[in-house]
Specification:
The complex is a heterodimer. Chain A is built from five helices and two strands. By secondary structure, chain A is mainly α. In chain A, strands 1-2 form a two-stranded antiparallel sheet. In chain A, a hairpin with a 4-residue loop joins strand 1 and strand 2. In chain A, helix 3 runs antiparallel to helix 5. Chain B has four domains: 97 residues; 102 residues, PAS domain (Beta-Lactamase, 2-Layer Sandwich), CATH 3.30.450.20; 74 residues, Helix Hairpins (Orthogonal Bundle); 147 residues, Histidine kinase-like ATPase, C-terminal domain (Heat Shock Protein 90), CATH 3.30.565.10. Helix content of chain B is 57%, strand content 17%. Chain B has twelve helices and 13 strands. In chain B, the strands form three sheets. In chain B, strands 3-2-6-5-4 form a five-stranded antiparallel sheet, with helices on both faces. Chain B has a five-stranded mixed sheet with strand order 8-10-11-13-12, covered by helices on one side. A two-stranded antiparallel sheet of chain B has the order 7-9. In chain B, a hairpin with a 5-residue loop joins strand 4 and strand 5. Chain B is rod-shaped, with a radius of gyration of 55 Å. The chains are: A mainly alpha, B alpha+beta.
């Protein structure tokens, strides 16, 4: 038997043994519930970074001297704060065993907390109102775009960009 | 801790609705902006941001609203089924919004480059448009400007009194202005300068070589004094400057020469130097002559007194006569020196210059052996009588005529001519001989006292210097022109001063 035949025999034997000996350990990895949460939290962090970079470059390029871009900068800052807020709420919801939330009726809820940590419950309650950050962020984006659009029309043919 | 859920429920219901509304409004604004300028990269970028944010807002808000509605309706299980999808879509939209946002810096840089390029293209387009519309006029203006410039420089070339010569790198003449033709003695119509070289006209080949070497090594040469031999063989002194021009694609290497004729200037300088020198010698001579004249008078007086008491044939009488003769010679020299230095008094009276010349010719013919010498008279008949010291002018004429006779030797031809210089109101007298001439080196010294080329004992060297002094004393000029072997011409000029009561 020459060397080439030896090689073919070895490769064929290996392939057959792998296929015949298949088990769950060799299947695709499963993704349990915590992974989704981690991905979501990472997405929040990514969102914070991207909004931070936008805010940085707007300042760096002196675009914030213009009113429209100034509002967009403010929008970026609010989105960053909202992301922090949301990430903290998710953390408190999923990771800490300090809190326990129970619905009493439609109009009331109960926050169970270790005695002496009432402030944390209050913080959780306030952070739950996260739309108070993301709605203004969206509003300033809209308003900034409105100002830019207005300036663009006023420029009438000339470029509104600095 | 029991707490009201109303604020959270309210914010959780109203907030998502506002998010959707605001995101859609933003999207509409950017849509309009894009519609206005679809090529604007920033609007496109904002469009993508708003689109991503709208999707994010809708996915999140829809999830929130649905959650609240299902929970209120007791559909907890249904929500539990929908929740993972809602959360996943929400997470995905986060990532999309963040990703799009991160491109801002790159988009902005590209946009600035586009703006810059667009500006340059616009400027180029504007320039092209301008050129296209005004090309004919611009060409005409440029042509006119070139014509004016060409005319201006052509005028400088044509009108210049100095020679302007353009030569090849070997000195061959390429172009020559009219003054150049005149200076070189060339005829513009009949001469082809194409095969001539400036070096042919420079008298000293070594000097010409030095000029060319300097031009080629240093690029230029300035104010070099050279002798130039014209086409008729006469030599003149020139001041030469030249500079080399670097060759280009269309023009070969050339050398531009500017040549100035300084012959007249040099002659004037030499004449001034000569006049200064003679004036200095005159001052010295007059001082010496004055001091010697008185003792000579005393010696002559006492010698003559002693002679009275001596018999004619005695030895002492002979000695005293010798002393008297030499003292008289000395006195004659002293008087000549005084004449040269213009210290002796000039007594002017109206006289006819032709009569004076006639007298001198008769006097010379009686006192010299000039049988084979022909003296020709060429008189200008319109010369009026003028105020001169007749005796002294005769002395000048005798000196010049005697010199001419000596120059021609035993046979020859002498011309005495008179003339008028109407522009200056002067008369001129010329004594021209065809004798041996005066060497160029001697011409500068002939008016110096005691300078003579005659053998010792034949001349004192004072004749011409005395003549010089007399003419200067009359306010005139005397000059000589001579070529060795061809003859000499002496010319003196006197201002014509008619007789009046005042003079």
């Amino acid at each position: 038997m020459n060397r080439l035949d030896c090689r073919y025999t070895f490769a064929g034997g290996l392939a057959a043994s792998l296929l015949l000996a298949a088990d769950t350990a060799l299947a695709t990895q499963t993704h349990g519930q915590p992974e989704g949460l981690y991905v979501h939290q990472m997405a929040h962090i990514f969102f914070i970074i991207s909004m931070g970079s936008l805010e940085f470059w707007l300042r760096q390029r002196n675009l914030t001297r213009e009113k429209g871009w100034k509002y967009i900068q403010l929008s970026a800052v609010l989105f960053m704060l909202w992301n922090i807020n949301a990430a903290v709420v998710h953390f408190m919801d999923e990771h800490l065993s300090l809190l326990g939330i129970a619905k009493i009726d439609f109009w009331h809820m109960q926050i169970e907390i270790i005695p002496g940590q009432e402030g944390l419950a209050l913080l959780y309650y306030v952070l739950k109102l996260d739309h108070l950050l993301c709605v203004p962020a969206m509003f300033f984006l809209y308003y900034g775009l409105k100002v830019i659009s207005k300036n663009n029309r006023r420029a009438a043919g000339s470029d509104p960009m600095p | 801790m029991i707490i009201s859920s109303i604020p959270i429920l309210f914010v959780d219901l109203v907030g998502p609705i506002l998010m959707i509304v605001l995101s859609l409004l933003s999207l509409r604004l950017v849509f309009r902006l894009r519609k206005q300028d679809s090529n604007n990269l920033i609007w496109t970028y904002l469009w993508w941001i708003c689109l991503a944010l709208s999707c994010f807002a809708m996915s999140r808000s829809a999830g929130h609203i649905l959650k609240n509605l299902l929970l209120m309706g007791g559909q907890n299980q249904l929500w539990a089924a929908i929740r993972p999808y809602s959360g996943a879509i929400n997470t995905f939209m986060f990532i999309v919004v963040g990703s799009v946002t991160l491109f801002f810096e790159r988009i902005w840089k590209i946009y600035q480059l586009i703006l810059k390029d667009r500006g340059e293209i616009r400027a180029a387009h504007k320039k092209l448009l301008f050129l296209n519309q005004n090309l004919e006029r611009l060409v005409e203006e440029r042509t006119n400007a070139l014509s004016i410039s060409e005319y201006k420089f052509r005028q400088i070339f044509e009108v210049s009194k100095d020679m302007i010569l353009v030569a090849g790198k070997d000195g061959s003449i390429v172009n020559l202005n009219p003054s150049g033709y005149k200076l070189l003695g060339l005829n513009k119509e009949s001469t082809d300068i194409g095969d001539r070289n400036l070096g042919e006209f420079i008298s000293d080949p070594e000097s010409w070589q030095a000029v060319m070497d300097t031009v080629h090594t240093e690029g230029s040469v300035s104010n070099m004094e050279l002798d130039l031999t014209t086409s008729d063989g006469s030599v003149m002194r020139i001041l030469l400057s030249g500079s080399r021009t670097e060759p280009s694609d269309t023009v070969e290497e050339t050398i531009h020469f500017l040549i100035k004729d300084i012959e007249q200037h040099k002659l004037m300088e030499e004449q001034l130097a000569q006049a200064d020198k003679l004036a200095s010698i005159g001052e010295l001579s007059s001082g010496v002559a004055h001091e010697i004249n008185n003792p000579l008078g005393v010696i002559l007086g006492y010698t003559q007194l002693l002679l009275r008491n001596e018999k004619d044939n005695s030895e002492r009488h002979g000695d005293l006569k010798t002393i008297e003769k030499h003292v008289r010679n000395c006195k004659s020299i002293v008087e000549d020196l005084l004449s040269f230095s213009r210290k002796s008094k000039t007594e002017k009276a109206p006289a006819d210059i032709h009569q004076v010349i006639e007298d001198v010719i008769v006097f010379v013919q009686h006192h010299s052996d000039i049988e084979n010498i022909r003296i020709e008279k060429q008189f200008q008949s319109q010369i009026p009588p003028t105020m001169i010291d007749e005796k002294k002018i005769k002395q000048v004429l005798i000196n010049l005529l005697v010199n001419a006779i000596h120059a021609v030797g035993k046979a020859g031809h002498i011309i005495i001519a008179t003339g008028l210089k109407p522009t200056r109101d002067w008369l001129s007298v010329t004594v021209q001989d065809d004798g041996k001439g005066i060497e160029k080196k001697d011409q500068k010294k002939i008016f110096d006292p005691f300078y003579t080329t005659k053998p010792t004992g034949e001349g004192t060297g004072l004749g011409l210097s005395v003549s010089y002094g007399i003419i200067k004393d009359h306010g005139g000029e005397i000059e000589v022109e001579s070529k060795s072997g061809l003859g000499t011409t002496f010319t003196f000029m006197l201002p014509i001063t008619p007789y009046t009561q005042e003079n």
